[in-house]
């Protein structure tokens, strides 16, 4: 379970950094790497990061206890 938490955290950080890049520089790293937002590779990355964010919600009660 600890490994899944770490993977989720890393993916959420990657997603957050991508959004920072979009907000500051209007540059989407994921779509640049995969050839556009509509490409299947980009969609997979966006979905995986989104699922990691949803999973991370379940970690909030654990973080509140610490």
Show unreliable segments: none
| Beta strand % | under 5%
Q: What is the typical, i.e. mean, pLDDT?
A: 92
Give a count of the beta strands, DSSP E runs of length 2 or more. 0
The amount of helix comes to over 70%
Number of helices: 4
Query: In whole angstroms, how far apart are the ends?
Result: 17 Å
Q: Structural class per helix/strand content?
A: mainly alpha
Sheet with most strands: none
Q: Rounded to an integer, what's the Rg over CA atoms? A: 13 Å
Shape verdict: elongated
- Give me the strand/helix succession: HHHH
Short description, anyone?
With 66 residues, the chain is mainly alpha-helical. It has helices at 2-25, 29-34, 40-57, 60-65.
Structure description:
It is a single chain. This protein is an all-alpha fold and 66 residues long. 82% of the residues lie in helices and 0% in strands. The chain contains 4 helices and no strands. The protein has helices at residues 2-25, 29-34, 40-57, 60-65. Helix 1 (2-25) packs across helix 3 (40-57). The longest helix has 24 residues, at 2-25. The chain starts with a helix and ends with a helix. The model has no long low-confidence stretch (mean pLDDT 92).
What are its keywords?
mainly alpha, 66 residues, single chain, 4 helices, elongated, 0% strand
Architecture blueprint of SSEs:
Blueprint: H1 2-25, H2 29-34, H3 40-57, H4 60-65
Helix pairs in contact: 1-3
């Amino acid at each position: 379970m600890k490994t899944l938490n770490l993977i989720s955290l890393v993916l959420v950080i990657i997603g957050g950094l991508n959004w920072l890049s979009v907000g500051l520089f209007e540059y989407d790293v994921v779509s640049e790497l995969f050839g556009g937002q509509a490409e299947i590779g980009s969609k997979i990355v966006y979905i995986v990061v989104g699922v990691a964010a949803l999973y991370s919600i379940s970690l909030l009660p654990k973080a509140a206890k610490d």
